Amino acid sequence: MINVILVDDQLIVREGIKMILSLDEEINIIKEAENGRQLLELLSTGQLPDVILMDVRMPIMDGVEAAKIVKEKYKDIKVIILTTFNEDEYIFEGIKNGVDGYILKDAGSDYIIKAIKTAYNGNMLLDPEVTAKIVRAYNSIANDRQTPNQLNEYKKKLEMLTQREIDVARLVAQGKSNKDICNILFLTEGTVKNYLTKIFEKLELTSRTELALFINQLELSK
């Protein structure tokens, strides 16, 4: 059973998501909160979920600030952010803080359920629409860092990877889970995890989301 805490300041949104998640017998919503501060109060009582599904824009404490604290104090909890991508800065602060995934608020029920299960299993689910939105937003925010010199530095980092590591990185950028990568490249899950550890070390990244951004940015610059 995957235990979930749902965090959103709008009751109607929480009720809608609860209805969606009730369709899956493997997911159980153990608590709800209206903002980040209320979430942290719940966690401090020892009510720890496997996954937190949280809105990005809330009063008192937003989802990104709450996610940062959660990731510092409770490293094993997965955090998925609900977003409309209207606030680009929120997205990239979240990525830096180690958020495990993003779901568009208008995502279908199957996708939301799949995202929760994927995060629970330690993977990142980024469908093409979400990836494209993140990359476009990243490019618009980080133009000052995307000079030819910066892109050359990124390419030099990429050259540090072996061909097999590049294959793994590109599949992560396509939103593939570790299991998917195993099947595509005929590798064991342990081998894939080892490759990812080396990739993160060489590229100085900390999450699958950052890796997806890194690879997609270079692909778009070609």
From TrEMBL:
Taken from the record, one Pfam family name reads Response_reg
Supply the alphabetized keyword list: DNA-binding, Phosphoprotein, Transcription, Transcription regulation
**InterPro entries linked to this entry:** CheY-like_superfamily (IPR011006), NreC/VraR/RcsB-like_REC (IPR058245), Sig_transdc_resp-reg_C-effctor (IPR016032), Sig_transdc_resp-reg_receiver (IPR001789), Tscrpt_reg_LuxR_C (IPR000792), WalR-like (IPR039420)
**Single annotated GO MF:** DNA binding
Q: Which domain of life is it from?
A: Bacteria
Q: Which PROSITE patterns match?
A: HTH_LUXR_2, RESPONSE_REGULATORY
Q: What is this protein called?
A: Stage 0 sporulation protein A homolog
Write down the species: Clostridium gelidum
